[in-house]
Amino acid sequence: MIRRAVGFFDDRIGVAPGARKLLRYVFPDHWSFLLGEIALNSFLVLVGTGIFLTFYYSPSDAQTVYNGAYEPLRGLSMTEAYWSTLNLSLDVPAGLLMRQTHHWAANLMIVAITVHLLRILLTGAFRRPREINYVVGVTLLALTVLEGFAGYSLPDDLLSGMGLVIAYGVAMSIPLLGGDLSFLIWGGEFPGSAEFFPRLYIVHVLLVPVAIAGLIGAHLAMIARQHHTQFRGRIATERNVVGYPLWPGYALKSGGLLLVTAAVLFLLGGLVQINPIWQWGPYEPYLSTNGAQPDWYLGWLLGGLRLMPALEVQLGSWTLVPNPFWGGLAFPTLVFLTMYAWPWIDRRWLGDNRRHELLDLPRDNPRRTAIVMSYFSWVLVVFVAGSIDRLYFRSTIPYEAQIWFLRIAVFVVPVLTYFAAKRLCEELRDRERHPLRGWNGKVVRRTPAGGFETLELDEGVPAVDGGNGRPGAPSEEQEAGAGTGGR
Amino acid sequence: MSGSGRPRLHRRVRVGAALVLAVGALASLALEEDAPAQGGRAGLEQARPGGPSADEQPTAGPVERPAPGLEPGDPAMVAQGRRLFVDGCSSCHGPDARGVRGRGPSLRGVGAAAADFYLGTGRMPIDDPDDEPIRAKSPYDPEQRRALVAYVAQFGGPPIPKVDPAKGTLSQGLELFTEHCASCHQVAGRGGMLTGAVVPDLQESEPETVAEAIEVGPYLMPNFRGQFDQKELDSIASYVEYTKELEDRGGWGIGNIGPVPEGMVAWLLAGGALLLTIRLIGKRTPT
């Protein structure tokens, strides 16, 4: 059956050589290499559910009156954007399942990208020759966050509107350009002209998703061209690629993971409520709610706005730099610029400009691990500041005291994290212990002939792609590439 | 042999530990969600602790308490109220309810509405006059509270407002609540934080308490005296009643406080489940 199908295409367009190469493509195998695939799978779920949502959503601020089944909103005046999202959630069959799954998938995609980024940073996968792909990855993170915010803003419910007014305030705070720029984006003063929602909609369903899809394509193509990195092993060296071929092998793993990701997301979409817009009600510029929060991936921007003391740059009576600029724009710009520059920072600090096909274990390079963890803990403290009012609103610690505590923690926690992580890595490295794997030693046995042999405790040896599988020869060879035959 | 057995054991322990962590985190979410509901029930009981009225009155429907402000002519009750007042309140409010400088305000003219609100919700008496009064179990039984309210009410001031949620409209209530109350109490009445005060959630309140708070404006809350007509007051009370049992059409409501618990579910539940998955299907040792 498959043979005949392949034969049909091969006969006409000659796919066999390409297909063989593709099917024999070797994937190094480690659980942490699957983190990015969770993000990719979430993106696929997002596209699928998103297409469904476009059939019902209307990006219009025209006023209409709700007369549907949900009693607390009956008779209220609202925009068509909110009305259509309400209708989609409460009346369209499977509409709420699709909307909730879409939202959960967005939240999960950025979780997966974040953990994937952490993996890349901790194992040194961004090093030469993979700097370009790393930069593409960081851009994907930025675009996904932007895309998430646009989606969060589209329903025009109370939380959407409060998010947009903060975004407007931050845009206005850009020195010199802010006023004109925000007028350009919103088409006028907040809440903007009738063109704003259609613009936001096109950004959300066309511009950014196409950019994301294109960059994902580039991301994967570059991985295929350069081959995936791998951890040093008994066989795996700088000169080969050890792993499973796409078929039979890795395709089943990846396909299974796609199904599990989709299953988890649809289960959440059906069972756990996310963004119940009917409970928030429609937005008007004079309305607000206590404890309004962005989706988690923007919590660090809210935290930045909150932690920043009331600092402004003024020339006489004219404010050059309004306060929201620091937390809302300067901070995220600094965070992303640092991430973009990471391969070059790492190279400068550690003085290593060689090509690397092998990954470090996080403990192999205590200094890098400590710097990365310290950097993440810095962003994490600011992130916590964004949700502190919700996390601790039953505690008796006053809000102002919490903010001052966090303002100090922003400086103290990264320092403590640096030393804690460095020490932990050094201990692990020295004791040859793996925190998740337990004992990592070898058993040496004396043979009847009087010699010694090391017992191998690993499972079977999978396929190996020879040294010629990589473009560009590695500059040094650190150990003899044993057995490049395999299966 | 021992080498191959050990990792397997470790793996089970690790998977188990991860599951326990994820479940624990979610259980704390679930508790958080249940807390107001349980508190609500406890609050209702607190309003009539152990007294005979606790058995007589069903929990459903508007609570029909005899309005103490309307019995000014009962000298025995006022006298009992005075005794209790001198005993329990006068250290801050003065023996004749004229207040004590630096400790507590005069209660002459605050009326039955304020007295019933503060005593009924257990916000008074308070240990430290500098603290924010928060809902607590009242040390007085309903009979004693009625006496105290009668005592304070005889100095004049607004009576306990009448309110009937059944006569209000839910959508009008939502509109008014969003406009006037949500910026502090959160749109679904879940409370929150302000600089200088913790805003209470409203799941434990009774319609009467809501109307009293609107009339009185306790602590940092402004009073809305005379701003709402009877219909609007009934509507707001009806919406607050509604927020006790929100329609969670999307499944588990995770507290109805928005994206923070949603982010926790995304990280712990979805992220945790998929982390376990890739740990199971991916290799854990270098080749």
TrEMBL record, chain B:
Region feature Disordered, mapped onto this chain: 36-75
Segment forming the signal sequence: 1-30
InterPro entries found in the cross-reference section: Cyt_c-like_dom, Cyt_c-like_dom_sf, Cytochrome_c_Oxidase_Subunit
Record keywords, A-Z: Heme, Iron, Membrane, Metal-binding, Signal, Transmembrane, Transmembrane helix
Xref: PROSITE patterns: CYTC
MF annotations from Gene Ontology: electron transfer activity; heme binding; metal ion binding
Coiled coil: none
Domain Cytochrome c: 76-244
Transmembrane regions listed in the UniProt entry: 264-282
Name this polypeptide is given: Cytochrome c domain-containing protein
Organism: uncultured Solirubrobacterales bacterium
